[in-house]
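pinging the channel bc i need a second pair of eyes. not urgent but kinda urgent?? the chain im working w is below, pasted from the shared doc
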Amino acid sequence: MTGGAGFVGSHIVDELDAAGHDVVVLDSLAAHPHGGPPWLRDDVELVAADVRDPAAWHRALRGVDAVCHQAARVGLGVDFRDVGGYVDDNDVGTAVGLRALHDIGFGGRLVLASSMVVYGEGRYRCAAHGDVRPGPRTPNDLAAGRFDPPCPACAAPLAWAPIDEDAPSDPRNVYAATKLHQEHLCAVFGREHDVPVTALRYHNVYGPRMPRDTPYAGVAAIFASAVAKGEAPQVFEDGGQTRDFVHVRDVAHANVLALTIERPAVGPLNVASGTPRTVLDMAGAIAAGTGLEPQVVGGGRLGDVRHVVASAERARRALGFAAVEPFDPASVLDAGVPG
């Protein structure tokens, strides 16, 4: 389990450990410079090293029959100057791991943490032209409050629809490009080594242990960081961006299913709650009861998209997965230390 001390990875470790599996965690602990996080389990073997280190992979891989690759640099970052860090951590780290798997003749299964960002904008329908793929929004669009992309054929308003795994990929930021490249690298490895590879495309994950006070985090974490400091969450655009916010415990369970079901699922799978909500909904729910009100500030971030809502049907069929956790934004303020 790479990234097993992190936000999503640690919840997967908890579930695997509770089910009696022996887990080895490969994690640099870079996100925890003052020692391991409080949820790091004493009964799980830890290799405290970087995924870009081949020797670390070889130490962690001794005797394993499945690999769950969660370690990654996430979020939009600060700006394009972060490109080297994203490629280094995500692409190079994955390549080093796959080379190590090749070297040891690995024949188990591989589960990759991917992301809905590989789609770019979600699925859109025009009343006249059916399914269409709008182009990226420009700085002028955002500044003028033109947040919803128009039909590229007739400029008419579009309606969003759930996107499935057959949609073409169209990464709109550096992080998205690296996640798609991770999928491609793992798929090539799987084909050449007859290893089943499952790429779980997480939608907007939230819940206990979410990182705070970092530009490398999702919108729920950004809102939670503001509320924890007594500040109103700042909502870009008009708050109407539509997402699927899925609880981290549901995401962890999807990983455990992918790692342990009798017949492995090959290919990409959306991991989502199946219930779309707006970004403003999330901000309001995190601030509820604090006396703070979300502030809609307009503008936006280049590389962000307007609407991405998932179809989770393929994950239901392939894994038997369905999200069960209630919508609980207050849980992002919880450290989530296992008892």
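so The chain is about 30% helix and 15% strand. and The chain has a mean pLDDT of 93. — does that match what u expected or am i reading it wrong
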